[in-house]
Amino acid sequence: MADLIKTREISAREAVEITIRRIEAMEPIINVMNTRSYERAYDRAEAIAADTTFAGVPILIKDMIDVGGVRRTDGSRMLMTNIPAENVMYIDGVEAAGMNIVGMTNVPEFAQLGVITNNTAFGLSRNPWDLSLSTLGSSGGSGAAVAAGIVPMAHGTDGGGSNRLPASVQGIFGMKPSRARMLPGEVGGQHGPVKTNQVLSRTVRDSAALFAHTEDPNGPFAPVGVISGPSSRRLRIGFAPAIKGGIAVEASVAKAQENAAQLLRDLGHQVVDAEIPVSHDEFFQHYNGAFLGQFGVFSDQALAISGSHAAASGLLDPFTASLIAYGAETPVDVAAAGMAYLAKVPAAYAELFSEIDVLLSPVMPFLSVQGDALTPQTRVNDSVLEFLQHGLSYTASANVSGHCAMSVPLNWDPVSGLPIGSMFQAATGNDGLLYQLAFELEEARPWKDHWAPYSVKHIPI
Fold first, then answer.
1. In the CATH scheme, what is the code of domain 2-279+343-444?
2. Which residue ranges in the chain fall short of pLDDT 50?
3. For position 247, what pLDDT does the model report?
4. What is the pTM for the complete model shown?
5. Percent of the chain at pLDDT exceeding 70
6. I need a surface site. Which of 177, 355, 389, 431 has the fewest CB within 10 A?
């Protein structure tokens, strides 16, 4: 679309009009929009310079980051009137690249429902490949918007798999950059301890181009710059078909990863056996111990707004309120032990990546998740947490470690036609290596013409 704008086949304003028509056609079907910022987009369309990289290409932003003048709710009734005054630095970078923000996409309340993008404020987002299935999350609204063809890319945040999971089940590309690689996405110029910002996209090219514009020049890594194609370097790639202690990987997902490994061999890479350097049960025992007790901050917000805590405030979904109560029972010594364990995870991955260049594994053990597997009314208990943990089995440890990872759509289930992503991970700071590999995989097995049934390709606009 940027080329069309630059060659004046369409104007930046017409690009906004096209995107709005797509939103209004698809929204009754997939429900991905929390806030529309059409007037802001029209105003910016007149001001965006044609010599910027994207020249006014519309983008949607996940409703969990500050965009100046646009409501940010985090999917919660508690924040329905919250309008940040200014962009955070990451959004400044997005707009400086010539992207034009048209609205904010749906998320689980404070991202906590995890594998289901649903909340009582805006409702359930639906997977364009099968409306009965989950988009996963928490960047589920953004993923569905891209899979449906509303926009070529949409912003997401990844704090435990939130870009990679929606990308995997919706047949698109999803990147989690290294910790502190990108411009800060938090107020005050801060980086979240596990959360990173980057888009979900139909093509590697678009993701890589925006990545180059939103790297932090003052961060801990030398900028990658613009990666525009594959490398001739052949890699040593470890293949871990399953995580120790996790549930069995579904047969179609396992077969897809074997196919991905064979593709790598066919491309001349060395594929060797590898193990994910954490075990499922031990990792999540400590992950829960470290993080569950921190959710009381949401209750504090509810108290400040309404004068009542969590459940009594009426502002938090029952799931979130029960998660706060569940986490409040975490003993102090358990939380301390959890943090001590998690502090060792980066070293475990560093040792692995001293032996291999890239790690291949499933993104998750399931082919898909039903859209009603959990709801905002679900009360948290041990079995609910166990279900969520299985969804995050392969993704969450990368956020704790801080290294980079991506979901690449290389396979489709031969029975259902559903997409199956493969996850590739590399050492902290090696984001450029992953992009080079992604370009190579995209050339070898293109996916951008695989369209979901409920997309602009098939729905009259």
1. 3.90.1300.10
2. none
3. 97
4. 0.97
5. 98
6. 355
Give the residue numbers marked as catalytic. 62, 138, 162
**Secondary structure, 3-state, the chain:** CHHHHHCCCCCHHHHHHHHHHHHHHHHHHHCCEEEECHHHHHHHHCCCCCCCCCCCCEEEEECCCCECCECCCCCCHHHCCCCCCCCCHHHHHHHHCCCEEEEEECCCHHHCCCCCCCCCCCCCCCECCECCECCCCCCHHHHHHHHCCCCCEEEEEECCCCCHHHHHHHCCEEEECCCCCECCCECCCECCCCCEEEEEECCHHHHHHHHHHHECCCCCCCCCCCCCCCCCCCCEEEECCCCCCCCCCCHHHHHHHHHHHHHHHHCCCEEEECCCCCCHHHHHHHHHHHHHHHHHHHHHHHHHHHCCCHHHHCCCCHHHHHHHHHHHCCCHHHHHHHHHHHCCHHHHHHHHHCCCCEEEEECCCCCCCECCCCCCCCCCCHHHHHHHHHHCCCCHHHHHHCCEEEEEEEEECCCCCCEEEEEEEECCCCHHHHHHHHHHHHHHCCCCCCCCCCCCCCCCC
As a whole number, the mean pLDDT across the chain is 96
